[in-house]
Amino acid sequence: MATIRLGDKAPNFTADSSIGKINLYDYLGDSWGILFSHPADFTPVCTTELGTAAQFKGEFDKRNVKMIALSVDGAASHLEWIKDINEVQKTNVEFPIIADEDRKVSDLYDMIHPKADSTLTVRSVFIIAPDRTVKLMLTYPASTGRNFYELLRVIDSLQLTANHKVATPANWKNGEDVVVSPAISTEDAKQMFTKGVKEVKPYLRMTPDPTI
Ligand code: BEZ
């Protein structure tokens, strides 16, 4: 198992899934990706998370992000579980759930934390950019379902800051004012951001979202 750090290439893999065999890089193509693990099939919190992910598909599509879930159960089990998720959450899970029975992908991505649970994965999230680099990693315990609004918010920040010399402040949401990158002088920022730059402190300069 290799340690993955931000900026590393996401390890590629080929694995069985609820939609058949998939290769991560082929599946992602030119898209962003979000890979998230679930401790096990037919568990309550995971059921709410996968249903929510499916309900948010339109929002992930808008951002050109492909979802891939993972649990250490087999593909036949995933398919039965998906029926329950669709029924309970009134949705349609279309994205693949990796069937990681041999823990190959879980080990590759360090998703099993033995002191939390020796066999099941924790709730890991990896956001992968189109150049295949890992842009975000999150680790939640099995007992806490993730916040999919937060995942969309981070993707909005990652996509904005990939293209503009800005960063996003605490609790920022799409469309709100952003922080000018510390690498830019205030003088240069005023040329670059024509909607205005407010210098709160020499190191804290705010500007409207440059994309709206
Ligand atoms: C759940 O998804 O509900 C869950 C899974 C493992 C441990 C605790 C909760």
UniProtKB/TrEMBL annotation:
InterPro entries given in the database record: AhpC/TSA, Peroxiredoxin_AhpC-typ, Peroxiredoxin_C, PRX_1cys, Thioredoxin-like_sf, Thioredoxin_domain
NCBIfam families per UniProt: PRK13189.1
Protein name: Peroxiredoxin
Family under the similarity heading: Belongs to the peroxiredoxin family. Prx6 subfamily. Belongs to the peroxiredoxin family. AhpC/Prx1 subfamily.
EC code(s) of this entry: 1.11.1.24
Keyword RNA-binding assigned: no
GO terms assigned for molecular function: thioredoxin-dependent peroxiredoxin activity
Coiled-coil boundaries: none
Classification via CDD domains: PRX_1cys (cd03016)
Keywords attached to this entry: Antioxidant, Oxidoreductase, Peroxidase, Redox-active center
Residues of the Thioredoxin domain: 4-160
Superkingdom field: Bacteria
